[in-house]
Design goal:
429 residues, conserved putative lor/sdh protein from methanococcus maripaludis s2 fold, Elongation Factor Tu (Ef-tu), domain 3, alpha+beta, 4 domains, 34% helix
């Protein structure tokens, strides 16, 4: 009797706890009865024109690939300078001219030096001839002295001949300088500066054409770039105006380090250079944006174009999972048109509009399933777990791979079917 009473008390407690759970927990689950049996849908317009696969954009500036620094000869005096900062010059235009008057005087002096060397060489050769004649009748001791004198004279002759050759080379260089006393530009461009003649570059010219983009990229994003990577360059004034190019230099050897030690976003930055396919309608100093060319066709399309992975049974009776009446999911059969192989998109000729909302095709979807417009809806988490139950076992993982794969696929199909039937029954109720 006592044992029966204890059992009855336990049953009453269990029922009490269950009832409390029903009354206290059920309100908390209100609105989540469809966990796992709900699908996220987005409008076709958002899927076509949203920014789901765009790359990062960076600021860039147009600069020239070549800056020519024309140096002046320190040993020469500049007579006339023909250009000033800001002047536009062409290939062959005069930049500056040396004073040839001083060079002419120097040339005359060099020629006199040559005559002096030749005279001294002749005199020494005459002395050697005289000593050789004397040596024939001289005593043995005198002959020894004459031989030493001849060797010394011959050494002096070699020195004078070397000096003469050196001076002749100087004369040739000086003649060329006189003949080319006017220095001309070798490129077409704009004179950037006219400096001191003793500076490394007396006249600096920014070459026209051969433009490139210089972008500054932070250390967090430098990994997005690679040599040869295709890039899209956009006008800041009109984003539809674009140019093409490719990354030519990632200059990590010249980091740009922020000096603002108080900045929370302080980071090292690096210059990245992009060679342009064409510089048409661009100018030095123009600011643009650059982004990786990821192969997405961003040209506005007319009509409805959909990524092919949204379409089921493409080869037989194509359809999409679309929102129907009463916010319930339905199979929407569509008529396909042209296929863009590059963008992997189908033209939808009929059956779908830009305003329609569709879901990504999953094994758990069924007609009549409720939909949500919130991609972060917690009720979707269970649905993701349901999809994972269909994972197959690959060869070699355990036992006979083919049998295990078939068994896994059968279990996944059976589980999906059971879940779908249960969900459909719940929806019908």
């Amino acid at each position: 009797m006592k044992k029966a009473v204890i059992t009855l008390i336990v049953i009453v407690l269990v029922l009490a706890i269950g009832g409390a759970g029903y009354f206290f927990v059920l309100p908390q689950l209100n609105g989540t009865a469809d966990i796992g049996n709900i699908a996220y849908v987005a409008s076709v317009d958002d899927l076509m024109h949203g920014f789901y696969f765009t790359s990062n954009r960076y600021s860039g500036v147009i600069e020239t690939q070549e800056v020519v620094a024309v140096e002046a000869d320190f040993d020469k005096k500049i007579k006339t300078t023909y250009v000033k900062e800001g002047d536009h010059v062409k290939n062959g235009d005069k930049l500056f001219e040396y004073d040839v008057d001083e060079m002419q005087l120097t040339l005359e002096q060099y020629q006199l030096d040559i005559e002096q060397y030749e005279s001294e060489i002749k005199a020494n050769n005459d002395r050697i001839a005289s000593l050789e004649k004397e040596k024939k009748t001289a005593t043995a001791n005198r002959q020894l002295t004459i031989n030493n004198d001849i060797d010394s004279i011959r050494l002096e002759i070699k020195k004078k001949e070397y000096d003469k050759d050196t001076k002749n080379r100087d004369i040739e260089k000086l003649k060329k300088s006189i003949d080319n006393n006017v220095v001309v530009s070798t490129v077409e461009g704009v004179v950037q500066s006219v400096d001191d003649p003793n500076a490394k570059g007396y006249v600096t010219i920014t070459s026209n054409g051969d433009y490139r983009i210089k972008a500054i990229v932070s250390e967090q994003n430098i990994g997005e770039f690679a040599i040869g990577q295709r890039m899209i360059i956009r006008s800041r004034l009109d984003e539809s105006v674009t140019w093409g190019g490719e990354v030519s230099i990632i200059d990590t050897a010249k980091p740009i380090i922020s000096t603002d030690m108080n900045s929370e976003n302080m980071a090292t930055k690096y210059p990245v250079y992009i060679e342009l396919d064409t510089a048409e309608n661009l100018m030095v100093g123009q600011h643009v944006t650059v982004e990786a060319d990821i192969g997405i066709d961003e040209t506005p399309r007319e009509g409805v174009w959909l990524d092919d992975y949204y379409i089921s049974d493409i080869d037989s009776k194509p359809y999409v999972w679309a929102e129907g009446s009463n916010a319930k999911l339905q199979k929407r059969y569509v008529v396909l048109g042209e296929y863009d192989e590059t963008a992997m998109k189908y033209e939808i000729k009929s059956g779908l509009t830009l305003e329609d909302k569709i879901a990504f095709p999953e094994i758990r979807l069924f007609e009549g399933m409720k939909v949500t417009y919130n991609e972060n809806d917690p009720a979707l988490d269970m649905g993701m777990d349901m999809n994972m139950e269909g994972v197959t076992v690959t060869d070699g993982m355990m036992g006979d791979g083919a049998e295990n794969t078939a068994a896994s696929e059968g279990n996944a199909e059976q589980a999906a079917t059971s879940q779908t039937e249960a969900a459909q029954a719940s929806a019908a109720e």
